[in-house]
Amino acid sequence: MPDKPQHTTDTTNKNTVPERPARQTTSGAQHRSGRAAQKPHRQTKPAAPPPIIPEREPTPNHLIIGRIAGAHGLRGECRMVLITNHPEALRTLKTCYLGEEQTAYSIRRIHLLPGGKEAIIRFFEISAPEAAADLKGQRVWVEREALPPLPEGELYHYQLLGLDVQKEDGTPLGRLAEIIETGANDVYVVRGVTGEVLLPAIEQVIVQIDLDAGVMTVRPQEYY
């Protein structure tokens, strides 16, 4: 007796849309227009500008010691944010210069606030709080010769900026372009033709500073 034909159940969902082959955009474009589709133009990134390598500046006549933060009280006093590691040296100052024009003001009194980060300064020329408020944001300069000598081993920033920096074997790294002040130690930013190098201002890294030759010798840390 011949086998009966096997009846199979069609499990396909009749409401399912049959898959269609993916449309080839490029060939379709060729078929419709008769020419090949152009690839989108890829924009190339502009080359990075070379780093700015500063020149060593001549010794300045004035140094910045702070910035006027605003008026204080009713007698024309000003609150000043200090930019110095030795605020006690400011007690003997008689004259300072404010703003980019470095206008001279006679100092009547400087009172250092606890912590050594701020001071209250009063000028003979200012007696009203409104006039003191107008000085907000002005940088405060003093004559370099009016400041006492620094302790041995310390240098002003202007003495370091622009120094040529090299490794112990004489390999040049660039010039000291910027000094970043952190809570622990300063960080020297050295810029050369190959980019930037960051050096912590610690004894293990800064081997020697020769101001006469304009050279700083360093031993960069190795990271693994």
Secondary structure layout plus pairing:
Blueprint: H1 25-33, E1 62-72, E2 77-82, E3 95-98, E4 103-112, E5 118-123, H2 129-133, E6 139-143, H3 157-160, E7 164-167, E8 172-180, E9 187-192, E10 195-200, E11 206-210, E12 215-218
Parallel strand pairs: 7-12
Antiparallel strand pairs: 1-2, 1-6, 2-5, 3-4, 3-6, 4-5, 7-8, 8-9, 9-10, 11-12
Structural account:
The protein is mainly beta. Helix content is 8%, strand content 34%. It contains three helices and twelve strands. It starts with 24 loop residues before the first helix and ends in a 6-residue tail after the last strand. The N terminus is likely disordered.
The H-and-E topology, N to C, reads as HEEEEEHEHEEEEEE
Biggest beta sheet summary: 6 strands, antiparallel, barrel
Helix content: under 10%
Q: Indicate the mean pLDDT.
A: 82
Low-confidence region ranges: 1-33
Offer a quick outline of the entry.
By secondary structure, this protein is mainly beta.
What descriptive keywords fit this protein?
224 residues; mainly beta; six-stranded antiparallel beta barrel; 12 strands; globular; disordered N terminus
